[in-house]
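Q: Please design a sequence for this.
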């Protein structure tokens, strides 16, 4: 009898633009690939093509083809030179920015049916705080909140956690600090974020670590390459590999399968 393969689903989110979320998501996906996992990277910032631009690969088809049942998920996936499968939006219509919840669920169901070729689904959410971002975070078993030392980044990250807790009863979060000058500053960011979410006593924040400031990162972005691939021995690359190891080992807080999360989302929106 065929046993369905377990798909580890991870969302990377930040409340603020400019903290390096897509760069982190792309490099984390490639790091996991280097650690022996088959990874699908999903860009939910529809129509902006962030992953496409960062990795310099064309996406001829988009999610609307899947929603219209013109193409299958396999048809619209693109395999990058780094070995990850990417689900981007290509040159999709502007209406992709306002997908209904039913359409989002259809996308997740399509992914859930494709797990035989995938170990990890990594969701690069849009920046900011919105219902769409909260939806995809809640569909994931693990949520990584990315924050930087800026006051606005910490405040917005705390607000995003507040929304996820209040709307979807999410209580477990990994915190990854980016753009800190050193480990001490990164820990201070985590302390301030912990204080900002302290009123919500049920919330648990897990310090995943920090990615050190590294000149190799903007150099790789300029070259439209992943830093973990172009500069494998730089501090940022060593850091992202360690983050990948930690998140892959994290099993005690998993909510359930993707299909379970989909059912929970349906319950959250059903009349009470």
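A: Design:
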């Amino acid at each position: 009898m065929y046993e369905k393969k377990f798909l580890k689903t991870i969302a990377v989110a930040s409340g603020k633009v400019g903290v390096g979320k897509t760069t982190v998501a792309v490099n984390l996906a490639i790091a996991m690939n280097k650690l022996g996992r088959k990874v699908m990277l999903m860009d939910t910032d529809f129509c902006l093509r962030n992953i496409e631009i960062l990795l310099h690969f064309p996406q001829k088809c988009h999610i609307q083809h899947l929603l219209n049942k013109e193409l299958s998920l396999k048809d619209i996936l693109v395999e990058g030179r780094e070995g990850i499968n990417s689900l981007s939006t290509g040159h999709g219509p502007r209406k992709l920015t306002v997908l209904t919840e039913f359409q989002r669920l259809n996308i997740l169901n399509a992914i859930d049916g494709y797990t035989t070729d995938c170990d990890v689904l990594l969701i690069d959410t849009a920046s900011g705080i919105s219902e769409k971002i909260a939806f995809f975070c809640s569909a994931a078993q693990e949520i990584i909140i990315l924050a930087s030392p800026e006051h606005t980044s910490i405040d917005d990250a705390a607000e995003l956690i507040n929304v996820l807790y209040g709307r979807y009863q999410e209580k477990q979060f990994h915190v990854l600090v980016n753009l800190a000058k050193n480990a001490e500053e990164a820990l201070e960011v985590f302390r301030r974020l912990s204080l900002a979410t302290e009123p919500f006593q049920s919330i648990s924040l897990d310090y995943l670590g920090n990615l050190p400031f590294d000149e190799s990162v903007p150099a790789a972005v300029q070259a439209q390459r992943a830093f973990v691939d172009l500069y494998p021995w730089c501090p940022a690359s060593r850091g992202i590999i360690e983050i990948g190891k930690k998140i892959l080992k994290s099993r005690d807080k998993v909510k359930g399968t993707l299909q379970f999360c989909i059912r929970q989302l349906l319950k959250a929106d059903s009349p009470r």
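Q: Thanks. Anything notable?
A: The chain has a mean pLDDT of 83. Residues 11-269 form a domain with the Rossmann fold fold (CATH 3.40.50.300).
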